[in-house]
Amino acid sequence: xxxxxxxxxxxxxxxxxxxxxxxxxxxxxxxxxxxxxxxxxxxxxxxxxxxxxxxxxxxxxxxxxxxxxxxxxxxxxxxxxxxxxxxxxxxxxxxxxxxxxxxxxxxxxxxxxxxxxxxxxxxxxxxxxxxxxxxxxxxxxxxxxxxxxxxxxxxxxxxxxxxxxxxxxxxxxxxxxxxxxxxxxxxxxxxxxxxxxxx
Length: 199
Known about the structure:
The protein is mainly α. It has nine helices and two strands. A two-stranded antiparallel sheet has the order 1-2. The chain is globular. The termini are far apart.
């Protein structure tokens, strides 16, 4: 029986920073980071409005290439997750600009737990949502929001990012994150059927 250890990236318990350090001496270790983030980033790209799988694959490839090329400039005291999300976000926005197309709206496929989280969040306590609203209705409404609001709501409620991470990803002051989330929830409430929503 072969006792050679198998490099199972899915069960790799090392921190992202540890894997980054390992990549400096063994570039194949970067594959661990790709395994960890490919699925998450693909869902994020779809939520940003990049729906075509081939386009997603192109942007993901550019994201990982850029991350790999700039790995030596990554500060391992910071969050790799925020860093790679920022690269993915920037690459997606660049893709839209180059093709002069608008995002196709936001894809909501998680569950009604997302709506419950938005509704019960203390980020905007004066905004109230009817729990009976469907996830499809919320998904359609997210697609109609101003981009600056959609981005923070997606990161906060669908990617489960903290304010500090959102600040890092979008390169905005942390104080602006809360303001944008609050206003975004208000705009979301306005876009949804006003008979189901009160502000």
